[in-house]
Amino acid sequence: QVELVQSGGGLVQSGGSLRLSCAASGFTLVGSSIAWFRQAPGKEREAVSCISSDDNTKYAASVRGRFTISRDNAKNTVYLQMDSLKPEDTAVYYCAADNWYGSICPAPSYANWGQGTQVTVSS
Predict the structure, then answer these.
(1) Of 9, 33, 67, 68, which has the most beta carbons under 10 Å away?
(2) How far is the C-alpha of 112 from the C-alpha of 91, rounded, in Å?
(3) Residue 106, preceding bond cis, omega within 30 degrees?
């Protein structure tokens, strides 16, 4: 059974930092394309960042220079380090992963999703 378990969300003041984790079980993140999405109330889900199987990374313009995606293959975990947080970063964040080989980021689809974690940034 594939499971992506997220942790690390919470409440932080503007300018602060949080690190989200996405730990996989029943599924290896090695050779996978992985992405972080977020959805704010009343808004559509948007892609925040992704990392391909060969570690090519991309970021949404709104977070570039502030967020960093990384993977730890030994721990089968992906991280999203979020610095200089702004109130507009407030959303539920989701990780997603699937077996897309090569420099595919973001992938056309993701079969496996985390449960979501709330990030709230106060002004």
Answers:
(1) 33
(2) 20
(3) yes
CB atoms within 10 A of CB 43: 9
Residue carrying structure tokens 């690190």: 19
Residue whose tokens read 């975990």: 77
Tokens for 101?
Answer: 């080989």
Which residues are registered as beta bridge partners of 46? 38
How far apart CA 25 and CA 94 sit, in angstroms, is: 16
Output the CA torsion sign for 22, 35, 49, 46.
Answer: negative
Task: Name the DSSP class of 88.
Answer: G
Instruction: Summarize pLDDT for 8-52 with one digit per residue, the tens.
Output: 999 999 999 999 999 999 989 988 999 999 999 999 999 999 999
